[in-house]
Queue: 2 jobs
Job 1
Amino acid sequence: MAEIERVGVVGAGLMGSGIAEVNARAGLRVTVAEVGDSAVEAGRSRIRGSLDRGVERGKISADDRGAAWDNIGFTTSLADLGDRDLVIEAAAEDEDIKTRVFGELDEAVGGSEAVLASNTSSIPIAKLAAATQRPQHVIGMHFFNPVPVLKLVELVPSLLTSAETVQRVTDFATDRLGKESIRAQDRSGFVVNALLVPYLLSAIRMVEAGTAAAEDIDNGMVLGCAHPMGPLRLADMVGLDTVKAIADSMYAEYKDPNCAAPPLLQRMVDAGLWGKKSGQGFYSYT
Ligand code: 3HC
């Protein structure tokens, strides 16, 4: 089976741009697909900014930044990903959008042995695989934000993923990307979000109940439990729209009230207060 050398990334948002950067830094040729020119421009400057930060922090040399940058191309057509060995979908956390993307990617890669992976946090991989004619080559490959900094990738085979695909992607994640992988079953939230999201929702319920202010809750977990950041700042960083989308998927799967999005979260999402990406969430980023 061919080595994975050419990678496609669908979506250049927070996660997609980080995934593209990590692949390009590992020497892979990356094509990033976005829906239009302004989304391409936003993704381009996000990746550029992160590569610059990597140089400022002494994590990569200026030469490596140049090489990584040269490895990345952009397109607005999924059909341009037809020659890829691996495509990692990182579109919005919305089942309809992801299913449509998988259908189009399936057509684009045709009868090749390409792997189609999803960075979904909570949507069943089996549903995405069912949108294709190649479910044996479909797998969950879930990265963590900020992708260039955090070492983990969750690998999530569906009931139909072949053992060969699992091995191929495991080797790729560790040997080529230098990540650590864990394996999880195809259950909403997998391992990390199944534990993390109820915790974030509990913190939001605490704000809602007036138990403590956001800053005090966050300081409690940073200073009292040595977490790198508190749950409300973390929810802002992940994006409150994304937190709600993951909570909704987990609630649909488990019917567990701990996974139900509290009204405050729903209203903040309705109001466009999506956290860091919109400039305002539990904190202000202007
Ligand atoms: N490239 C490479 N390295 C970089 C970098 C870049 N672009 N930007 C920063 N770094 C490095 C820094 O050099 C530093 O490395 P060091 O520890 O060796 O010195 C390290 O990353 C930390 O960077 P900073 O000093 O800028 O920032 P902080 O120390 O304040 O840490 C943080 C920021 C990494 C975001 C930290 O607060 C953190 O880890 N927070 C928790 C994040 C988390 O939990 N993420 C998971 C979210 S859940 C998710 O993603 C799943 C999804 O489905 C919802």
Job 2
Amino acid sequence: FVLIAGSANLDFVVRASHVPAPGETVLGRELHTFPGGKGANQAIACARAGGAATRMLLALGEDAYAEPIERSLRDAGVELLIRRSREHATGTAFICVSDEGENAITVAPGANATLRGEDLPELNEVSHLLLQLESPLDAVEAWARRARAAGVRVVLNAAPAQALPASLLDCVDLLIVNEGELAAITGIADDCDAALARVGVANVVVTLGARGCRARIDGEYLQQPAFTVQALDTTAAGDTFCGTLVAALAAGTAFADALRRACAASALACTRLGAQTSVPAHNEVQALLHT
Ligand code: ADP
């Protein structure tokens, strides 16, 4: 099965005429709460894609914010390994969205910051471990090292963007990044193929928004155009891409086909509002792939 270790948050979203400047108070409209966090979003995408059983290691507080997060993951069919923190609240994100679609986001990682290297469970029967950078970097590196040593395929979505130590990249079989993250890792912003070759990981995928994605797989370049959709909200498009790609690879799908499937699922996610609520089901992706 696929194991995801990473973040889960409850997102508090308020729309307002504009994002407040420092010191300013803005009266917004209704409060909406959505389960989010890159780890949880990707776990849901992986489970909805079908083809591989999905488990997630996550940390939550002992508070009311944990409940909707757990429910969303369980409803999608994700099996949960929860580290419960007494001292820290469940992770939260406070998001103000302006009428122009600009946003300002403050994340309180809370319990997510308490995950440790030793929290990773037994890796028997795990084919792929999917990681992001919303967990402590030393824990991410410890998980990647242990999985690599156990023969598990290590997939890292290096988001949010930051420079990464070679000691972490050395344990990664597949790196998934967007253009900004690729530039943060390689220092190359203007030459995609040069950046893909510079990374030093055998398999790298860069997502290109409405242009689809490009990959360097064992030295060979692959290109997959995006599916044309009416984009409404691109939140969690990248997470949908990651979870769908890993589910397809875990099911034995060839790389080029898995990229096509990931682009189809993430395009559908762009047509719907929200994060986890916008992740499409397997049959919807099938329908788009066969149009
Ligand atoms: P992130 O949101 O992590 O920055 P991208 O913007 O690169 O990631 O989007 C991830 C994937 O979502 C892309 O590879 C593409 O397949 C899909 N996608 C994003 N925006 C669009 C769009 N406007 N139309 C169709 N597909 C899109």
